[in-house]
Amino acid sequence: MTTPKEFHDQAMLLYEQSLALRFQHNEGERIRLLNEAFDLEKNAALLLIDRFDLEPTRSKLFASAATMAYQCQKYRDAEIMVAHGLSGNINEDILNELRDLFDRINFLRHLSLKGIELDNDEIFFSIANGGEVMNGMVNEGEFIPRISSIRTLYSRTIQRLNNRPYKTSGSTSDSIKSASQIYLSAGIAASYAVRLKMTRPIFTLEIPGFETPTKYIDEMLDCIDLVNTGKIKQLRERISDDSYFQNFIDTTRHIAPDGNNIKGVGFVIQRDKKEIQYPLQRKKSDIKFEKPTQISTSDLFQNNESDSDKYSTLTGSLEIANQPKNYIQLIENSDKKTKHKIYFTNEAQKDIVKKYYGEIVTIDARVNEKNKLEFIDIREKE
């Protein structure tokens, strides 16, 4: 007859092998080994189900079996293992471990009812240095908008790589929503840092061509690195769609440091048991689509040179866009009377300007062949 120790030793061998496969991105084989490990660990624990005299060994086996079931997404089995473990006369440490595990089981079961699950891959996101951050603490106004921008980048990356058209209005499909949610773990004591876990649909057939989050995480971070290193031309080659390209640069700008309140942000992921760092140190004011030629607005519409070569930087108050006519209106600061209509050239620009309505902003614009101003970029007043 197989003893509890023999079952346990076999289970741990398979469990360690499954952990190694996690870094090789062999998800199918990893899950298979993990299920076998759980069956063996459950057998070991059940052999001691009535042996309350063998604590803490008995409760530790049930806690181990519950953890494996939890990782296999066998939430009902995990609940049963936790219940058996809690029934013993156990010490405070194991009691707290089982209670914590029970909370996590209920949380993930709640996600499964929504048709999603957390992926094993994760991102470490950190905010470092500056007047609004210290070890383990950050101003929420600096943190929450950046997390929202990361989610936007990630969601747009999924849409782009799955050949979805760029949309500025209307609801996002349920399948994309289920694939692009982000959950945050507790902060990590390193300036201010958190772990970001991405979701994925339980039934990935809802998104033809959808792959695990790793593909989209890597694409997003590689493109952030191109922005950080000023390789905008290479980014343009990688993101051919005008709307996705412009949205990516503008959204990355909202994650980037301002050089005062926040002096640095960065991402870290693990690939093949190695940490890969993606610092984002370029200040948001230095992230631009193009560098406009500085000419006065009085010369902007003169015909002494090709209109298509004319660029200008305008500063003023942004008025609400006239959506049917596809433009925004800027009231210049210099005299408060001069108004400029600036027309959009792609869908992303409508998203970009929404953050700035009623604000004093700087807008880069060009004159097109119809002698109208075309939008290039917008940012906070320089």
Strand and helix layout:
Layout (H helix, E strand, L loop, with lengths): L3 H19 L4 H20 L10 H15 L3 H12 L5 H22 L2 E13 L4 E2 L2 E2 L1 H22 L12 H6 L2 E3 L7 E10 L11 H16 L3 H7 L3 H14 L8 E8 L2 E7 L16 H4 L10 E12 L4 E6 L6 E5 L4 H7 L5 E8 L5 E8 L2
Parallel strand pairs: 10-12
Antiparallel strand pairs: 1-5, 1-6, 2-3, 4-5, 6-7, 8-9, 8-11, 9-10, 11-12
Helix pairs in contact: 1-2, 2-3, 3-4, 3-5, 4-5, 6-8, 6-10, 10-12
Structure report:
By secondary structure, the protein is α+β, with helices and mostly antiparallel strands. The chain is built from twelve helices and twelve strands. The strands form three sheets. Strands 4-5-1-6-7 form a five-stranded antiparallel sheet. The chain has a five-stranded mixed β-barrel with strand order 8-9-10-12-11. Helix 3 (57-71) packs parallel to helix 5 (92-113) and helix 6 packs antiparallel against helix 10. The longest helix is centred in the N-terminal third of the chain and has 22 residues, at 92-113. It is elongated and about 90 Å long. It starts with a helix and ends with a strand.
